[in-house]
């Protein structure tokens, strides 16, 4: 029995914002199916009374003072932007 | 003999006696890189002009610490201001960081000189460095074999004598496994020991930066320089820094060692087992005792790890979208199309595979069955370690089930590749520290590694045991012929 279908793989690729070719869908379906089947060995374990790990150390509520501090310099931030105009990052139109 | 065959302490005393200068050390690095890196391919980016300038400055300004003036290589997922940082991915092929990682700041204060950036599996996803989008690094002991991964460049550069030490990062074994494959010393500190600020995140609950060196003493010095709580990383732990190097007494009388039977079981080759049993004899000779124990859930480590690490990665890597930095695809019709095309063109196959797995495990309807289940099993794995460590000082086993495999041998088989990390992954899941030290050679001449695992924040004991073992053996003195 397959755990994951090609349609599901297309859906997941959309959620992950990855363009995929038909060939990739085919390969990913096979590979993810094998990995998920492998992962299902965890079902051998009864975990009904086990708390999920949220942190490996006994650390909680790390707080700091709410003080303002200088942020990154605009010119520095824009240095790596692939497209920019008038001191701002430019993207394709968002509203149709 | 190279100057880098000496320990840090010795190199510093040679500098003091003016037998060698800081510019000489940097020159030695670049000469060695020019001679062997065409074969080894450990470096993605070199920073020669700056490094030579800094060497001149360091020479005239004098010593700041034991690390002053020492050349270092940095894994290319640790951001360095002014030196391109790619995580070995095309999506960051032109990324020029605007700040330094905390560890890089700390090393600058200590006086090290960054030579360049080291190759790795793309975004640290892999166990062979074959997933780099730039080049395949080769094992200095045998160029047909992988150096391990993901910190393959970090381990190979040290083994090849290009730099005396390097920084790597370890999410499921990415420091220890390549250290084992390349015959060098690699430490994954306790989770939270070293700030992750400026480490390009793969799986935030598992990632940890650590040192790779030729010997245990230097490793302890390097870790001392990079530990500490950091306001920029709220998962960094507020524990006192320690003088790890001062704890290397050579005395391990009365040490209680646990040897998990699972670590000498199925899948572990006979020669690996024999090397570990021989190492235990050496430790017994030094006054330690060992007993067989069980970490019953360790066989579930790989499955647990791939679900959790991939889930975290799918979230962490969402930031690479072609907007603020890095690669941006051409000809996109709208914003969503731009994201999809950029990511499809910018990421390699293994990264896409893990983003897909993680997105699936976190998606509506599957979260409880996969992600939450794996977090519950993580609790059981962590408890295995707590139970054993209640009665023992350290846990010892092999670092990897086999010596380094051949380039191309298992790259098309993800599950076999993942199984390589079966002995290192549980350590990350439990958050405890672990080191790999050279413990012999396989019949084919490739190095083998001994893994020593300790209590949370007890790197001191781990180092003490590793050092005592190293002093009693000669494996770390062997060097590859290049």
TrEMBL record, chain A:
Q: Where are the stretches annotated Disordered?
A: 68-96
Where is this chain compositionally biased, Basic and acidic residues type?
Answer: 68-78
Any one Gene Ontology BP term:
translation
Q: Which residues form the signal peptide?
A: none
Q: Is the Cell division keyword given for this protein?
A: no
* Superkingdom in the source lineage: Bacteria
An MF annotation (GO) of this entry: glutaminyl-tRNA synthase (glutamine-hydrolyzing) activity
Catalytic activity entry: L-aspartyl-tRNA(Asn) + L-glutamine + ATP + H2O = L-asparaginyl-tRNA(Asn) + L-glutamate + ADP + phosphate + 2 H(+); L-glutamyl-tRNA(Gln) + L-glutamine + ATP + H2O = L-glutaminyl-tRNA(Gln) + L-glutamate + ADP + phosphate + H(+)
* Keywords in alphabetical order: ATP-binding, Ligase, Nucleotide-binding, Protein biosynthesis, Transferase
Query: EC number(s) per UniProt?
Result: 6.3.5.-
Quaternary structure, per UniProt, is: Heterotrimer of A, B and C subunits.
Tell me the PANTHER family matching this sequence.
GLUTAMYL-TRNA(GLN) AMIDOTRANSFERASE SUBUNIT C, MITOCHONDRIAL (PTHR15004:SF0)
Q: Which family does it belong to?
A: Belongs to the GatC family.
Free-text function comment from the UniProt entry:
Allows the formation of correctly charged Asn-tRNA(Asn) or Gln-tRNA(Gln) through the transamidation of misacylated Asp-tRNA(Asn) or Glu-tRNA(Gln) in organisms which lack either or both of asparaginyl-tRNA or glutaminyl-tRNA synthetases. The reaction takes place in the presence of glutamine and ATP through an activated phospho-Asp-tRNA(Asn) or phospho-Glu-tRNA(Gln).
Q: What is this protein called?
A: Aspartyl/glutamyl-tRNA(Asn/Gln) amidotransferase subunit C
Originating species: Domibacillus enclensis
TrEMBL record, chain B:
What cellular-component terms does GO give this entry? glutamyl-tRNA(Gln) amidotransferase complex
Q: Name one GO biological process term.
A: translation
List GO molecular-function terms, semicolon-separated: ATP binding; glutaminyl-tRNA synthase (glutamine-hydrolyzing) activity; transferase activity
Cross-referenced InterPro entries, in alphabetical order? Answer: Amidase, Amidase_CS, Amidase_dom, AS_sf, GatA
Q: Which Pfam families match?
A: Amidase
Record-annotated active site: 75 (charge relay system), 150 (charge relay system), 174 (acyl-ester intermediate)
UniProt EC number: 6.3.5.7
| UniProt keyword ATP-binding present | yes
Q: Which residues form the Amidase domain?
A: 24-462
Q: Does the keyword Methyltransferase apply?
A: no
Keywords, A to Z, come to:
ATP-binding, Ligase, Nucleotide-binding, Protein biosynthesis, Transferase
The reactions it catalyses are: L-glutamyl-tRNA(Gln) + L-glutamine + ATP + H2O = L-glutaminyl-tRNA(Gln) + L-glutamate + ADP + phosphate + H(+)
Instruction: State the family named in the UniProt similarity comment for this chain.
Output: Belongs to the amidase family. GatA subfamily.
Q: How does it assemble?
A: Heterotrimer of A, B and C subunits.
Q: By its UniProt entry, which NCBIfam families does this protein fall under? A: gatA
Q: What function is annotated for this protein?
A: Allows the formation of correctly charged Gln-tRNA(Gln) through the transamidation of misacylated Glu-tRNA(Gln) in organisms which lack glutaminyl-tRNA synthetase. The reaction takes place in the presence of glutamine and ATP through an activated gamma-phospho-Glu-tRNA(Gln).
Q: Name the PANTHER family on file.
A: GLUTAMYL-TRNA(GLN) AMIDOTRANSFERASE SUBUNIT A, TRANSAMIDASE
Q: What is this protein called?
A: Glutamyl-tRNA(Gln) amidotransferase subunit A
What's the source species for this entry?
Domibacillus enclensis
Its taxonomic placement starts with: Bacteria, Bacillati, Bacillota, Bacilli, Bacillales
